[in-house]
Predict the structure.
Amino acid sequence: MRDVYIYDAVRTPFGKYGGALSATRPDDLAALVLRTLLARHPGLDPGRIGEVVLGNANGAGEENRNVARMAALLAGLPTGVPGTTVNRLCGSSLDATINGARQIALGETDVVLAGGVESMSRAPWVLPKPDRAFPAGEATLVSTTLGWRLVNPEMPQVWTVSLGEATEQLREREGVTREEQDEFAARSHDLAVAAWESGFYDDLVIPVPGVDLARDESIRPGTSVRKLAGLKPVFRPDGTVTAGNASPLNDGASAAVLGSAHAADLLGARPQARLAGWAATALEPQYFGFAPVEAANRALERAGITWNDVGAVELNEAFAAQSLACVKAWGIDPEIVNRHGGAIALGHPLGASGTRILGTLAKDLRESGRRWGVATICIGVGQGLAVVLENQTA
């Protein structure tokens, strides 16, 4: 088994639902991040790319028919470069990274482009086909933007509650308060604003041509615990999950260059970080938000290190409540988590979030000089993914 490295990572700014990126097709967003990676490494012969692997959670609209292959063609890659799309919902692009890493580790190729894309604004409505021709009754359009749809009646109802209701159940079980959630959410915005102001994201985020969006659109400067405390619960009248302490709906794309040690010669670049371990885990669907706990623990074990070695964590903030539950379960210092803002502020375009947190983690390690980091994400229907990175630039 060969070592696998991250050589580069980019993403678009993340747009709000119905916002600045809502007029841009998802396959065009995906093609943009691939094209940018090629332009940043002009010494790489595109024909040496063994695979394009992209994640996408919806896949019912313009990104249907294997968006990885479509984006590769739109980006101008040779027609001989194959592409495949994976769907593990919110974890899709982190799963794409793991899939690409396996190909490199097994010696099948030296370079893979991995990433993901989502346009939640452009996710279509779907209409199920009738069981027989010419039905007399009415049919209902179903939105594919987020959550369960066309649920199999054989599925236990306890599993099929909304993501928000599931988070309410998890915060009850784990004892997470409304005040803790609002403090966590305010911190996410404060750190995101500071990261942008300091230039941290300048080489990670690329503009979308023809779109006036320089930064992530969901960030709200000046967000305070007091303001967040005034928001009403969304999923229960007496609940704690609000629009302010949950991630928003977003559009965006992200991608990374993965390679073997030999890829350094092909790219003319040094690796940023080594993928030292990864893991996928699953639990009861209604507790999906807690799944990163075991996923990260297993990934650390496979990397041969412990939480005591970890200096940075990128945990996708689906909800403040589930993020807090995970951090408490790990027993780690909350200050090492999402130091440059998280999904509550930056946004969560489902299929793009995995390589967003991975690229952020690689740069965090590079700038801080810390050796070990963990990128992890919860996934609807009760799954979690985690990847351990080892800094190669210190």
Notes: The chain has a mean pLDDT of 97. The first strand starts at residue 5 and ends at 11. The two ends are 24 Å apart (CA to CA).
